[in-house]
Structures are given as structure tokens and as C-alpha cells.
Design brief:
Elements (H helix, E strand, L loop, with lengths): L4 E14 L5 H9 L6 E15 L4 E5 L6 H9 L6 E6 L3 E4 L12 H11 L4 H15 L14 H14 L4 E5 L7 H16 L3 E5 L3 H7 L2 E6 L2 E7 H12 L10 E5 L1
Parallel strand pairs: 3-7, 3-8, 5-6, 6-7
Antiparallel strand pairs: 1-2, 1-4, 2-10, 8-9
Helix pairs in contact: 3-4, 4-5, 7-8
Length: 261
Amino acid sequence: MAAIIDCHRLSKAFILRTNRQYLLKDRVLAMVQPRLRESHQTFWALEDVSFAVERGETFGILGPNGAGKTTLLRIIAGIFEPTSGSVRVLGRLAPLLALGVGFHPELTGRENIYLSAALFGFTTREIRAVEGAIIEFSELGRFIDVATKNYSAGMQLRLGFSIALEVKPDVFLVDEVLAVGDEHFRGKCLRRLGEERQAGRTFLIATHNLQFIAETCDRAALLVEGRAAFVGKARKAVRRYRRLLAGEGGEVSPRIDGGQA
């Protein structure tokens, strides 16, 4: 059976610019003072990352800040294009990434339900059928008719998570969003995620919670400075990461190419 997510040699580069020159006088000064010239570096946020996630699997992504976890999930979600490599996703995907991504700030929570579900291919009739369940799970009450630009981070989490559950995706992408919000709603979300796992949904989860990775995930990938330092059983990945944090895991250097414009 084909993997539901297949990442093959994914790399992503970003251009880092210094001394950006917007005015003519700055460009003239740079001609006589080299230190003022605009320069750029190519920063590789991901480099040659490969792994596959099987249908029904809970797969963890762990690593320090800046390791490339969010970049990886955004490529899989289709928000970023990879610089090289390929990613294939079979089925409907629900990204729970940065809070508020996909919400129109001027629209109310209710209007954003219709907008978000429509982007998943739902008809108006289908959205009406799940609207009540989304509002009930979110516990937003009368605030469902308030513009989302006025929502707190916790309220955005409630709405985004509730929508993702009701569109019945094949794959959930989760990027540390459950770190936001009150304990009651986090517990409620984790219980519902457990039910979805039992129903055979696939999860790709980036988190700093090593206990969650070890106890919940089947397998995991450890990212270090944009590269996959380990892909395998979740508990082994956690042990490798802990050794790395203790200074026993060696170093993986990012690739940065410098130059002047």
C-alpha cells in the first residue's frame, strides 16, 4: 500500500538580505563604500529530508527551534513550494498550523466556518449540516458572530480545531497549536484526537512535548538544522534527541551560501 505522505529529498532555501537599498542616494553611497552594498545569503531551512507516513499512522516531528519543523509542515500543506525534492499526499489534508492561518480577519467566526469548509470542497448544504457541531465543540457561543480579528489566540484555536474535525480529513497536520488555550479545551482536543486515531486518521505532529511523542506516536523524524538526523521508532527518536540536548549527539551544520547582489 502506498504511503499517505511521501517526502522525497525535500529542500527549502530562503534568501536573507542585508543592507536593503530602497533610495537612489543609498545606491550611490554603496558604489563608493563597499560595506554599504546590499548583500544576500541563501539559507537552507530544509536540506534533503526524506520520510514516508503510512495510512493510520501517528508520526511525530521533533527538534530544536529553527530545525525546520514548521517549514516542513508548510511544504506538506502546500503553503510553501520546495526548492527541490517532492512531496505527495493522498487524501484530504487538514493543516492545524499557525493560529488564524486561513481565517479572514474581517469575517465573523460563523462566516469563516463557511469559507474554510468551502475550501475543503464542502457545499453550502454540507456546511449547514456540520455548522452546529463546529460551534458546539468550539464553545464560542455568542462570539461566533464576532469578527475573528477580535479573537484571542485561544479562540482562534477553538474555531480552527473544530472546523478541522468536522471536515473529516484523511490527514491532520498539527504544529504545536495545542500549546495554546486553556487546560479544559486542550484535554477535550486530545480526547477527540484519540478518537480520530482509533478511526484510522493519519497524524503528522510537530511538537516539543517529548513525552507526547514517545507515548502517542508510532514513528518520528528528528530534524536538526534542517536535516533529518533520525527517522524511525518514536521512542528511539526521543532518546536520540535527549542525547543531542545533552551534547552527545554531534553536530549537523546548516548550509549557507553568501554573496553580494
